[in-house]
Amino acid sequence: MEVPLRYDAILRDMKRNDTQAFEEASNNRFKVERRFATMVRTHALRRCRYLRLKGAKVHIMLANMACNIVSMVNLIYPPSDAIPQI
Description:
Largest sheet: none
Helix content: over 70%
Number of domains: 1
Number of helices: 4
Structural class: mainly alpha
Radius of gyration: 20 Å
Mean pLDDT: 85
Low-confidence stretches: none
Strand content: under 5%
Number of strands: 0
């Protein structure tokens, strides 16, 4: 049986997983992950269209702004109120 080279890091991380701070951070992580999933699905963040880091930053910033605008519109006009019932 072979022991990984950085086994000490694995043990340190396993101890950190048992702390209260990690539990609280883990409970809030789903909000961020959900936002990233939405941006990947609807704002083309799976593949960057730019070659350099500067262009990628602009792409991410614009996608984030678009996502925020959609969220604001949905807060002001909830989807159920947007379509009139006939």
